[in-house]
């Protein structure tokens, strides 16, 4: 896997728009021109509502995937199958922005606090109230956007992963934490359209 952090590009976002729009219009997406390196990746859709941007879907994979097939798969999965939201409709597309996060530099943390806000994304494994192993993650930008401390982020992540019991020292010390970094690119729909027009 390439080691550089500056790996995500706006072309990756344009391709995700292309995949989503082509699917919704029942057309074939254009083949991308970027390199087909392998990365763990996430695709995030946000939508503008009354002047503010709100999450509209975010799903990814921690297994390295070739970028062309990975972005194609998760542009649709995050846009249409995020269980927190209804599938994105064609009429919403002009208000969308797309973010592509390519994940790098995975390291095992010494404990649940062994990471830096604004630098690392975190992925935790823990045992839930019923004795089952669960996992949950936040990408690097989520925690500073929410204004959380490390402890608040961990507590929120446990809840996101389905832990419903009391969060005490025993639970926190049982967490296995992996920290990672992310290269993120973003594009709005208007930027995507300007790019398409420049190509035609």
Provide structural commentary.
- InterPro entries: AMMECR1, AMMECR1_dom_sf, AMMECR1_domain, AMMECR1_N.
- Residues 1-196 form the AMMECR1 domain.
- This is DUF51 family protein.
- It comes from Phascolomyces articulosus.
- With 200 residues, the chain is of the alpha+beta class.
- The protein folds into 2 domains: 10-104 and 182-199, Hypothetical protein ph0010, domain 1 (Glycoprotein, Type 4 Pilin, 2-Layer Sandwich); 106-180, Dna Ligase, domain 1 (2-Layer Sandwich).
- 31% of the residues lie in helices and 33% in strands.
- The protein contains 6 helices and 6 strands; from the N terminus they run αββαβββαααβα.
- It has helices spanning 10-24, 67-80, 142-146, 150-160, 169-174, 189-199, and strands spanning 38-49, 52-66, 96-108, 121-127, 133-138, 176-188.
- Strands 2-1-3-6-4-5 form a 6-stranded antiparallel beta sheet.
- The chain is elongated, with a radius of gyration of 18 Å.
- Residues 1-5 have low confidence and may be disordered.
Order of adjacent strands in the largest pleated sheet: 2-1-3-6-4-5
CATH superfamily of the largest domain: Hypothetical protein ph0010, domain 1
Could you name the ranges where pLDDT drops below 50 across 5 or more consecutive residues? 1-5
In the CATH hierarchy, the architecture of the largest domain is 2-Layer Sandwich
Write the layout of secondary structure elements.
Blueprint: H1 10-24, E1 38-49, E2 52-66, H2 67-80, E3 96-108, E4 121-127, E5 133-138, H3 142-146, H4 150-160, H5 169-174, E6 176-188, H6 189-199
Helix pairs in contact: 1-2, 1-6
InterPro entries: AMMECR1 (IPR023473), AMMECR1_dom_sf (IPR036071), AMMECR1_domain (IPR002733), AMMECR1_N (IPR027485)
Protein name: DUF51 family protein
Domain AMMECR1: 1-196
């Amino acid at each position: 896997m390439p080691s550089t952090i500056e790996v995500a590009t706006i072309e990756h976002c344009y391709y995700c728009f292309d995949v989503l729009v082509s699917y919704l219009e029942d057309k074939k997406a254009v083949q991308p021109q970027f390199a087909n390196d392998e990365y763990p990746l996430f695709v995030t859709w946000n939508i503008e509502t009354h002047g503010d941007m709100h999450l509209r879907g975010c799903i990814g994979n921690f297994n390295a995937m070739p970028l062309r097939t990975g972005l194609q798969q998760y542009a649709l999965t995050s846009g249409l199958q995020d269980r927190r939201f209804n599938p994105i409709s064609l009429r919403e597309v002009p208000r969308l922005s797309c973010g592509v996060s390519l994940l790098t530099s995975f390291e095992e943390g010494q404990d649940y606090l062994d990471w830096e806000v604004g630098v690392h994304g975190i992925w935790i494994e823990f045992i839930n109230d019923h004795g089952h192993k669960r996992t949950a993650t936040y990408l690097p930008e989520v925690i500073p956007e929410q204004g959380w401390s490390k402890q608040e982020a961990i507590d929120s992540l446990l809840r996101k992963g389905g832990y419903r019991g009391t969060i005490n020292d025993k639970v926190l010390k049982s967490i296995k934490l992996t920290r990672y970094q992310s290269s993120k690119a973003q594009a709005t729909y208007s930027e995507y359209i300007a790019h398409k027009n420049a190509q035609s």
